[in-house]
Amino acid sequence: SDPFPLPGGSLPTVLMNVLQTLAPNDPFIDIDSVVAMIDFILDLAEIPPLIDLEEGKFGFFKGTNATKSWWKINSGKYDLENYNKVLEFDGMTRLPDSWWDNFGPTPSANKSGVPGICHDIIGTDGMAYSPSVDKDADVWLFNDQLCRSIWLSFEKEVDIKGIKTYQFSPDPSVFSMSNPNNYCYCPNVEKCAVAVPENDTWDMSGCDMCIDGLLSLQGCQGAPVIMSTPHYLDGDPMLAEAIDGIEPDREKHVTYLNLEPMTGMPLQAHKRIQISVPVFPSTYFDCLKKAKQVVFPLVWVDEGADIDDENIKKAKGLLVTPFLAVDIGSGVMIGAGGVLLISVILHSIFGKK
Fold it and tell me: Cα–Cα distances in Å, from 168 out to 180, 228, 262, 267?
C-alpha cells in the first residue's frame, strides 16, 4: 500500500528539491554531494521492511511474509514436552533490544538487571503442541506479527463434530498494562514509571501511553503501528467509546485455539488482530487541526483455519473409533466374563445336588 507517498517522488529527490529552493546559489552547499551522501546512509541503515524511505512508502506487514522468515523449532526427539517449541526466530534466541525496553516487573528486579519477558521467545508457532494437553496449564504462542509471545488460558471444552477439544484463548491480563509482566511493552516506560520502595512495585499512573489492550509496534516495525484485539476487546473502555461503531464482541473478536488434548493438534484456530494508528491534532494539516487525540482503527483480520469434513473423518478414525472399539470390546468381555462367572457358580451349586 502507498497511503502516504512523498510529494515530489523519493526521499532523495524531495531533499534535492528542498535544498535547491532554500539555497539555490549557495557556494558552500554541493547539492549533488549531499544527495549522494543521503543515498549512502540509506544503503547502510537498517530500515524495517515496513518502510521504504527511498520510495517514500510504507505498508502494513510489508516484507513480513512468513516465507521470508526463518524458524528453528524443537522436534521433540529427546523430550516430547518441547515438541514444536520455537528455538530461534530469524536466527535470534531472543528478540532485539530495540523492539522493547529492558525493564523489570519490579524496581528490585529492574535494579538487578532482570528484565521482563518482552524479549523472550516462548511457546510454539501455534501449529501444534506436545501431546497430553493439560487444561490447567497455559499454552504459549510466539506471534511474529505482534513481535512478542503471548499465553492462552483454558476457556472451555468444545465438541467439534464428535471430537472433544480444549479451547484456549488469551485472557484480559495478556494485554493489560496493570500486569507487571507487560510493563516492558509500555512505550518509554523508564521515563514515566516511578518506584514505590515500600512494596517493591511501580507506580504507572504517569504513563499516559500505557493503555490496556494496546501494543505499540514502533520498535519492531519502525512506524507508529498499534496492535490490539478487534474492536479493542478487553481494552480500556475509553478506546471503544471514542470511536462510533466500535462494539467489542467476545464471540466474534477473541483469538482462540481448539486443541485435541491427546495429540496437541489444533482442529480450529483463529488469530484475530486489529491494526490502528494514533491520531493527534496538528496545525500542519487542515483536516487534523480540530482532530481529537484517539487511537484510530484501520482494519482487523481473522486468520483462521477449521478442519474440513474429510480430515475430521480421518481424525475420528484415529482418535475416536479405536477407543470406542476398545470400550465396546471391554464391555463385551466384561459381560461375557460375568455370564461365565454366573454359569460356574450355578453349576457348582446345582452340580452338588
Answer: 22, 18, 15, 12
Query: What average pLDDT does the structure give for the chain?
Result: 81
Distance CA 80, CA 263 (A): 11
Give the separation between CA 343 and CA 353, rounded to whole angstroms: 16
Residue at 268: amino acid letter = Q
Helix axes 309-319, 321-352, angle to 10 degrees: 30
The per-residue pLDDT for range 1-47, each reduced to its tens digit, is: 333 333 444 555 555 555 555 555 555 556 566 566 656 555 555 55
C-alpha of 163 from chain center: 27
User: What would the pLDDT profile of 83-109 be if each residue is shown by its tens digit?
Assistant: 999 999 999 999 999 999 999 999 999
Distance, in Å, from the CA atom of 12 to the CA atom of 18, rounded to the nearest integer, reads: 10
Could you give the CA distance from residue 125 to residue 304 in angstroms, rounded to a whole number?
14
The set of cell numbers assigned to 184 is 516492558
Do residues 223 and 58 make contact, with C-beta atoms less than 8 angstroms apart? Answer: yes
How does residue 71 score in pLDDT terms, banded at 50, 70 and 90?
Answer: very high
Q: Please state, in angstroms and rounded to a whole number, the distance separating the CA atoms of residues 291 and 280.
A: 7
Q: What's the CA gap between 114 and 199, in Å, rounded?
A: 18
**What's the number of CA atoms in the CB half-sphere (13 Å) around residue 98?**
8
The amino acid at residue 349 is I
Q: Which residue carries 523519493 as its cell?
A: 10
Of the candidates 51, 52, 86, 59, which has an alpha carbon nearest to the alpha carbon of residue 70?
A: 86
Which three cell numbers, joined as nine digits, stand for 199?
Answer: 512494596
DSSP-derived letter for residue 288 is: G
Q: What is the rounded distance in angstroms from the CA atom of residue 80 to the CA atom of residue 98? A: 33
Q: Which residue has the cell 501494543?
A: 215
| Cα–Cα distance, 76 to 87 (Å, whole number) | 12
Average pLDDT over residues 173-193: 93
Residue 264, Ramachandran bin (φ over 0: left; ψ between -120 and 50: alpha; else beta): left
CA distance 268 to 189: 37
